[in-house]
Amino acid sequence: MPYDLIVDGKAMDLGDRHYLLSPQDLCGLDQIGELIQAGVQSLKIEGRLKSPEYVASVTRIYRQALDHNRRVDPTRDRYELTMAFSRGLSPGWLPGIDNQTLVHGRFGKKRGVYLGQVSRVTATGVWLRPQAPLQPGDGVVFDQGNPAAAEAGGRIYQVISHGDQVELQFGHRHLKLGRLRVGDRLWKTSDPELERDLRRSFSGDQPRFKRQLHLQVHGAAGQPMTVTAQDEAGSSARVSSQSVLVEAHSQPLSPNRLRQHLGRLGNSPFRLGTLDNRLIGSVLLPVSELNQIRRSLVEQIQLQRCQPRQWQLYPQASLAQLQVSGAGPSSPSEPPTLTVLVRHRRQLEAVVAANLETIYYEAENPATYGDAVAWFRAHRRHPRQSLWVAPPRISKPLENYILDQVKRSQADGYLVRNYDHLAYFADQPCRGDFSLNVANPLTAQYLKHHYGLERLTASYDLNIDQLRDLLTAAPPNGLR
Question: Each residue of 95-127: pLDDT tens digit?
Answer without folding.
Answer: 888 888 888 888 888 889 999 999 999 988 999
